[in-house]
Amino acid sequence: xxxxxxxxxxxxxxxxxxxxxxxxxxxxxxxxxxxxxxxxxxxxxxxxxxxxxxxxxxxxxxxxxxxxxxxxxxxxxxxxxxxxxxxxxxxxxxxxxxxxxxxxxxxxxxxxxxxxxxxxxxxxxxxxxxxxxxxxxxxxxxxxxxxxxxxxxxxxxxxxxxxxxxxxxxxxxxxxxxxxxxxxxxxxxxxxxxxxxxxxxxxxxxxxxxxxxxxxxxxxxxxxxxxxxxxxxxxxxxxxxxxxxxxxxxxxxxxxxxxxxxxxxxxxxxxxx
Length: 273
Description:
This protein is of the alpha/beta class. Helices cover 51% and strands 20% of the residues.
């Protein structure tokens, strides 16, 4: 438990420190982009990814959605507007939660969308209190994926859908692959992702059945090099955040071919049994 508490504080510290700067690079949708003919840069690609996730979310007006790892809150606000649902977004970062609630107030959506600082390992919600859930690039930050998935299973009603957008391990990593992936994971306080069968196994053990699996690697992976170039243009700022040597290693890993060959990006839709 002490180790899990330390990891939680480490993730909180990272996003308290970096969210504002990363938002300037990504735009309001702080996650990988969906690159197609309609996008021109990382912010528009990230916004397109949110649109794609909303399209894949099976909800009806009035239902209640949990957004696990809400970031800036913009994806949750967009989901609530587009699908006429209520959303509760959670994050370990106090600054992200405050920023997201400010956005909800400014957009006059605080009645339908609220954000709270919550530990995903112990969700403070009653059983079967949500109709659906999102986990957009948040599972990789969890100290124990299995525990978090069991918590999500508990708070979702039977038949409720969980949408996970995250990385997956394409192949057993070589030494060079491992070094690149571990450098990125260390910088962003993440663990190496499972394989696709590993994702399915974890979901099954938590009481979910995978009903759809969409490999978005081709659309998402351009985000890696795009982010690296944007961060490189602001080297002094990000060196202060990550440390000079750590940031240099991070850039080298993000710009190398090993990372994209090792880690893919998947959208999983799972149903609570």
